[in-house]
Design goal:
The protein has 134 residues and is mostly helical. The chain has a single domain (23-133), classed as Fumarate reductase/succinate dehydrogenase, transmembrane subunit (3 helical TM bundles of succinate and fumarate reductases, Up-down Bundle), CATH 1.20.1300.10. 68% of the residues lie in helices and 0% in strands. It has helices at residues 28-57, 61-67, 74-102, 109-133. The longest helix has 30 residues, at 28-57. It starts with 27 loop residues before the first helix and ends with a helix. 1% of the residues are buried.
Length: 134
C-alpha cells in the first residue's frame, strides 16, 4: 500500500519578517532595553577584573601590586568610569523592575524598589566605613 499524501513532502511557507539590524534604534524604549542588555557585559567584565584582583591578593602584597599595576593606568581608569556608568544603569533598571516582579501583597512594587535602594545605601556606607578605617 502506497502513501500518496503529498502534504508531507511540500515545503511549508513560513512568514519571515525582515528585521534590520538597527531595529532597536527606532523607538526610545527599545534603545534603553538594548543598553540595559549591553550593560550586563560591563557587569561581567567588572566581575572578571574583581576576580583577577582577588586571586592576586591571595598571593601576597608584592604579587598583588605587580599583577594589578595595570589597573592604575589611564585607559584602565577610563574603562572603569565607563563600566561604572553602565553598572549604575543596570542596577537602577533592575531595582525599578524588581518592584514589578516581586511586589505583591503585602508589599507594593514601590516598597520593594525603595527597600532595594535602602539596602544598597546601607551596604555602601558600611563598606565605605570598613575600607576607610582599614
Amino acid at each position: 500500500m502506497k502513501h500518496t499524501d503529498n502534504s508531507i513532502t511540500e515545503p511549508t511557507k513560513t512568514y519571515r519578517r525582515i528585521m534590520p539590524n538597527t531595529w532597536w534604534l527606532k523607538k526610545g524604549s527599545y534603545t534603553l532595553f538594548m543598553l540595559r542588555e549591553l550593560s550586563s557585559v560591563f557587569v561581567a567584565i567588572y566581575a572578571i577584573f574583581l576576580l583577577i584582583r582577588l586571586c592576586a591578593l591571595s598571593q601576597g602584597a608584592e604579587i598583588y601590586n605587580s599583577k594589578t599595576a595595570i589597573f592604575n593606568s589611564g585607559w584602565m581608569i577610563a574603562l572603569h568610569a565607563v563600566m561604572w556608568v553602565f553598572i549604575m544603569y543596570h542596577m537602577i533598571t533592575w531595582f525599578k523592575i524588581s518592584g514589578r516582579i516581586f511586589g505583591k501583597k503585602p508589599l507594593s512594587p514601590g516598597l520593594v524598589t525603595i527597600a532595594n535602594y535602602i539596602v544598597w545605601v546601607v551596604v555602601s556606607v558600611v563598606l565605605f566605613l570598613i575600607i576607610t578605617k582599614g
